[in-house]
Amino acid sequence: MMRLDLPLRTSRLTLRDFVAADFAAVHAYASDAEVTRYMFYGPRTEAETRAYLDRMIATRHEVPRTVWELAAVQAADGRLVGACDLTLDQPGEADLGFIFARDVWGRGYATEASRALVAAAFEQLGVRRVFATCDVANLASARVLQKAGLRREAILHRHKHAKGTWWTSFLYAIRREEFAAPPPLAVRDRELR
What is the crossing angle of helices 109-123 and 139-147, to 10°? Predict the structure, then answer.
């Protein structure tokens, strides 16, 4: 059975499963039009955020588990500042994603979380490829994916219809054989004790 040894820890973040008490923090960024500008959803209403959070909590009990949507919490103060995820829709491949509150943009959290998830995907889940997409206008996310070790493979023209429009996205990916473990950003919980 595939599993991640959670929580994952980086130098500044703890990546853990969501809990119901995370609602206010999640809704704060999920309802922000600027934060969700390049997402296929949003901004979310309270009901949509609650339904999303309920779905993410439920994924913890799925067998086999194929979705790890994790809360990104600042290690220094315990504040939930975003989310990152790995989704295994196809055998051997993980789809990487992230979203962070606007007030923490530019601090490198998305890169830090993405590096940790790429490492976990290869080292713990044993996938052969990690990929991600981002809107061609979302240059900040494209930079994050490059810094996390992924390289641009293609442009997907009109690959997704959402929010009443067709989206064109960059496809980024890294294969197991290309993966070189980054500096120890992802430290397992038991290694911190």
Answer: 50
Run of H or E including 59: helix 46-59
Tokens standing for 71? 């809360």
66: which 2 tokens?
């194929």
**Token pair for residue 193?**
């004790």
Tens place of pLDDT per residue across the chain (193 aa): 578 999 999 999 999 999 999 999 999 999 999 999 999 999 999 999 999 999 999 999 999 999 999 999 999 999 999 999 999 989 999 999 999 999 999 999 999 999 999 999 999 999 999 999 999 999 999 999 999 999 999 999 998 999 999 999 999 999 999 986 554 444 444 444 4
Nearest to 114 by CA among 143, 153, 90, 74: 143
- Give the span between the Cα atoms of 124 and 99, in whole angstroms: 23
